[in-house]
Amino acid sequence: MIQTLLSNVGEFKKDSILAPLCVSMEVVLEVLVPLMMAHLLDYGIEAGDMNVILRTGGVLVVACMCSLFFGVQSGKYAARASAGFAKNLRRRMFYNVQEFSFSNIDKFSTASLVTRLTTDISNIQNAYQMIIRIAVRAPLMLVFSLFMTFTIHVRLALVFLAVTPLLAVGLYFIMTHAHPVFERVFRTYDRLNNVVQENLRGIRVVKSYVREEHEIEKFGEVSDCIYRDFVKAEQLLAFNAPMMQTAVYTCTLLISWLGARFIAAGSLTTGELTSLLTYTMQILSSLMMLSMIFVMLTMARASAKRAVEIMSETSDLSSPQEAVTQVKDGSIVFNHVNFSYGGEGETLCLRDVNLRIESGQTIGILGGTGSAKTSLVQLIPRLYDATQGSVSVGGVDVRRYDLGALRDQVAMVLQKNVLFSGTIRENLRWGNAEAEDEELIRVCRLACADEFIEKFPDGYDTYIEEGGSNVSGGQKQRLCIARALLKKPKILILDDSTSAVDTRTDAQIRQAFQEEIPDTTKIIIAQRVSSVQEADQILVLDGGRIAAVGRHEELLKTSAIYREVFESQTKGGKENA
Asked: Which phi and psi (to 5°) does residue 422 adopt?
């Protein structure tokens, strides 16, 4: 885990090295200050020697200024290194998520990914900054200060050695009991983000059904879980401060009492006692800083584990060596295909699918809810791999293609149409970043989107809000179809993507497809028979199997399922779309 994290330090290695170096110089100077103070008291002030006072005082000022300089520099380097480290972690995680297949994405909820990219990375960033600065400063200060106390007075220095093991036991107890609580807290954060995200995405439904109270209650339950867990964790961590304070005051009292006796006995000077008291504060503040580090590391350990899970996750779909990079045509062959989202041994969504589609054909797919219509078409661009059997495009098994080359020739307009914040022009150019305005207008005309775009005051520069919330469902569908057409694909898949447009517009879009892209294989998943009745082949799916294949007239005679759907949508020869 640590190796995976540190591999992301990257270009910030220099800052990560300079920060602890500057801290080390700062500590050395701070440790020397009490020794110089003792010299100033014993040989300057008590002896009344002005030369010693001026000379030692000057050295003290220079040492303090240098210590301040190194402290500022260490803070600057540590901040830059930790922020850069977090940036690299965030970037690597996000890039890795982009490589995930659908099955990889299914393992993590959206809310969990957001939490890992934000809260967890912030925890790791804070811990890293503390490690390269405070975690260097505290041990060095502890070791150097202890060494100085032994050089001044061995018997008094033993006081620190007696206290340190007790503190170590206390810190170990806190760490081992707090870590599981923090792990649970971050999992609950995932649930909280999921509730918030779901509520905001469906806010119109919530208000339509007057379910605000229910959503508030649901949010409150998850929020209370986080509250209870944090209270439990903080109660454990609360032992840290009093434990440290007890150690500080105990050591101070013992050294003051014993030091006074040694001064009276003549084995210790006033300056040495003063420096010992200063070293006492340095040693015990170092121990307090170490306890803070342990607390932060306890939190960061849980976050680091969650971040590494994302970075270590490898896509179960990848391009093979010597991959095919050219798709010959839009022909498609399913050969004894079985498919399950859970892999081998799980319940099959598709069963023994055999199908041949010639390039340029128009294929309609009908079937009830859960009949695996979407699962079937997702195997074509290799969003999932067939569990058994094979799928070929252009005469080549899809598993032999370079993923980018294959998907670039298969355009999909999914059931859940997604537009991104930006102008209409920017959204369309997802299909082809280099497309000219004339090409944008042409594909929008094919998708019957030009008629409403031209009515907008800003036309193609109209800004689309997040998720396309400022356009209707039908407008969103037509924009997504235009975006797909801009790719000039060899295969175009419309997954129930004209459900929000009227039958006249639906017919115009299909007519435009026949005239403008005759060589493109078109697969249309629809609920309306009218959307597919002119197709070259119509597939009727039932329970993950192809129940019937044929043209409209043929299926009306041979397929009871198709005939039932057709009759349910028509009355007196008129379609009830």
From this structure: 150, 180
